[in-house]
């Protein structure tokens, strides 16, 4: 949304959507409606190929490489000259196909000293499993080390739970569990020389649509924080 300078539909592949879907999925809905999220942009190259009038011609758009392992499953990799890519993960170890994709992106960069930054997060997708999170850190750091590239990692912690979180999820995904997960995984990240960014305090008093996911204003600020 930021890079395309399109807050209304910038997070979606609107070229694949019907007019009625584009109208329904505007603004907040592109983030909170499951039927809209299926159109989420997963790589910058598709924007270049299908939306020539997008913000990538503006001074705010840079050619970058990104791989994102995040909340709903994702890893993010940045480096000049390579489009960003999202790798969906919800377990550790991830599939061999995901490992291959990650490694192939790293090897596109001929300069072994140029940083290729990775944003890594894994929380609600694994029910805040501490062993799975630490295993995932080790898994992707090991792959990065094998590549012999300069790959700094940023571990991003989960959002706080909103008051609309279903009672059935409060015990395992309530704020007590989320806070302890945030603190302990930040320690684990630090012990592996990874940077860590917590989202718990930032979202603690923010309005959530369903107790787990937040709207456009929160997501845009989080993107700028990262």
- Taking pLDDT < 50 over at least 5 consecutive residues as the criterion, the unreliable ranges are 64-68
Average pLDDT number: 83
Query: Helical residue percent?
Result: 25-40%
Secondary-structure element string: HHHHEEEHEHEHHEHH
Q: Indicate the proportion of strand residues.
A: 5-15%
Oligomer: single chain
For the largest beta-sheet, the strand count, sense and barrel status come to: 6 strands, mixed
What does this structure look like?
With 226 residues, this protein is an alpha/beta fold. Helices cover 39% and strands 13% of the residues. It contains ten helices and six strands. The protein has helices spanning 19-24, 29-32, 34-37, 44-50, 96-106, 130-147, 167-173, 175-191, 200-203, 216-225, and strands spanning 66-69, 74-78, 84-86, 117-121, 153-159, 195-199. Strands 1, 2, 3, 4, 5 and 6 form a six-stranded mixed beta sheet that branches. Helix 6 links the parallel strand 4 and strand 5. The radius of gyration is 18 Å and the shape is globular. Residues 64-68 have low confidence and may be disordered.
């Amino acid at each position: 949304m930021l890079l395309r300078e399109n807050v209304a539909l910038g997070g979606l592949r609107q070229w694949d959507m019907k007019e009625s879907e584009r109208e329904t999925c505007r603004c907040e809905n592109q983030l909170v409606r499951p039927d809209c999220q299926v159109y989420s942009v997963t790589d910058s190259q598709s924007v270049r190929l299908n939306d020539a009038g997008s913000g990538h011609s503006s001074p705010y758009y840079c050619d970058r490489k990104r791989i994102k392992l995040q909340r709903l499953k994702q890893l993010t990799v940045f480096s000049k000259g390579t489009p960003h890519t999202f790798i969906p993960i919800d377990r550790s170890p991830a599939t061999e196909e995901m490992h291959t994709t990650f490694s192939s992106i790293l090897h596109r960069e001929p300069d072994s000293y140029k940083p290729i930054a990775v944003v890594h997060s894994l929380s609600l997708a694994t029910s805040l499993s501490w062993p799975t999170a630490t295993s995932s850190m080790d898994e992707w750091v090991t792959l990065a080390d094998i590549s012999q590239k300069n790959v700094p990692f940023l571990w991003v912690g989960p959002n706080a739970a909103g008051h609309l979180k279903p009672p059935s999820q409060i015990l395992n995904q309530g704020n007590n569990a989320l806070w302890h997960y945030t603190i302990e995984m930040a320690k684990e990240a630090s012990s592996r020389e990874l940077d860590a960014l917590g989202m718990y305090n930032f979202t603690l008093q923010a309005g959530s649509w369903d107790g787990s996911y937040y709207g456009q204003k929160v997501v845009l600020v989080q993107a700028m924080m990262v």
